[in-house]
Amino acid sequence: MKKLGIVILMIGCIKSLGAQFEQFSLTAPFLFYPAFSAPVLNDTIWANVDAIPDTVRDTLGNPVAPDPVIYARIFYSSNNQASWDSLNLSLLGYEFYENTYEGFRIYPGTGQTFWYFRAVDDSGKNFSTESPKNINNTFPVPLNLLAKACIESGNDVQPGAPGNFLELTDFHVTYSDNKVFGVLSNASGTWPWDEGGIIPLEWYAYGFLIINPYHVMEDTFYGAIRADAPIYITDPGLYKIIVNGQTQINYIGPIQQQTSGGKLHISFDLSTLINDPNFGPYYGVLAVAAATAWADLGGAYFADATQPTRWYLRTHILTPGQNTAPSLAGHQVIPSSGDTLTLFDFRVKYVDPQNNLPPVRRLYIDDTLSYLVGTPDHFYQDTSLFMID
Questions:
Q1: Bridging pattern class, strands 100-106 and 44-52
Q2: Kind and range of the H or E element at 18?
Q3: Cis peptide before 308 (omega within 30 of 0)
Q4: CA distances (Å), 233 to each of 4, 220, 249, in order?
Q5: Per-residue pLDDT tens for 54-91?
Q6: Which of 31, 22, 71, 74 is CA-nearest to residue 51?
């Protein structure tokens, strides 16, 4: 049965983070159209992703300039996600691929492999990431099933914080088919609930906050919060946070929480979040940031927060030998004839049932001339028109 609690403990944290979440939606790169060439053992595998810069805006919301992407990287595992290697991707940068990053290597391992992308903006602090997949809902979550979800500055806890246990040092995330997981790290490796004693008068809160990047509401977001301050009528849980006049936090579901290895592990059912009537349409992307706070009889206070990250809840799982060949159709030469002064347009439709990208994208004429071709449509499963003008 759902319950409603007015949780004042996190108010200071919430009000401070509102601006950070708004800024998040403006600065983290987008990761669109991830694609791979067909996986073949002992052959080259190509990986592409469009890392689209977001737009920096002024305080009035007016666009100022693009926020450049400084680099993109892909992580891959050939041992069932037990360990990961990475490969830096290069910007192609030519027509139709102005924001496409590409990398290649010999297909790793001898069987199924796992892959995920990440892109970082020019500041080096704002980034977007995919992640490993916690297929078996393992909890607490081992590090090999987690993706880094922040680039956290050190020694930035608010002055007056009662202990370095409120100083965040890292934040990681993962997901399964039905759950979301966040793992917080702090400076002490301890996660006290309160100051101790028979009747504690100071309480501590830890958790991570969430918004839907495709349905940003200035006055509503969500938090998976671990706290227990009876005077504030709070329990660990997933809360809907409404900052509209009087701040309220509505309990919408339970969380699972546990400390392990000096870290705080939190998880909750994804359906509880995305089925909330205020959440909006879910497209497999969340904006997340870890946060800490403390409270006493005098009020509640923000302590620390990580930089929000755009998190795509997806992992690319490739299996060699399972491939249907692509097809070419509808080729055109415009005009159909001419002389040495005629300018021709060449076009052909490419479709791949597995959305595999074509690693070779060239036009050959009489086996002597070769030209690079491209397409603005990098989703290959529903037909992409390659062209050269």
A1: antiparallel
A2: helix 11-27
A3: no
A4: 9, 20, 11
A5: 877 766 667 787 888 999 999 999 999 999 999 999 99
A6: 31
Provide long-range contacts, Cβ within 8 A and 24+ apart, for 193-202.
193/227, 193/228, 194/228, 194/229, 195/162, 201/296, 201/297, 202/162, 202/294, 202/295, 202/296
Task: Give the list of residues 6+ apart from residue 180 with CB closer than 8 angstroms, or none.
Answer: 173, 224, 267, 268, 269, 270, 273, 286, 313
Cβ count near 73 (within 10 Å): 19
Is residue 260 a contact partner of residue 183, using CB atoms and an 8 Å limit? no
d(CA 214, CA 287): 10
**pLDDT per residue over 31-49, tens digit each?**
999 999 999 999 999 999 9
Cα separation, 256 vs 260, in Å, equals 13
Q: Enter the DSSP assignment of 342.
A: -
Q: Which two tokens stand for residue 138?
A: 């393992």
The first and second tokens of residue 290, run together, are 């870890």
Higher pLDDT, 280 or 367: 280
What number is the average pLDDT over the span 360-373? 91
- The pTM for the full model equals 0.90
- For the chain, the first-to-last Cα distance in angstroms comes to 63
Put residue 299 in one of left, alpha, beta given phi > 0 → left and psi -120 to 50 → alpha: left
In this structure, the strands spanning 384-388 and 345-351 are: antiparallel
Structure tokens given for 5: 């609690």
Query: pLDDT at residue 28 above 50?
Result: yes
Q: How many CB atoms lie within 10 A of CB 50?
A: 21
| DSSP category for residue 271 | H
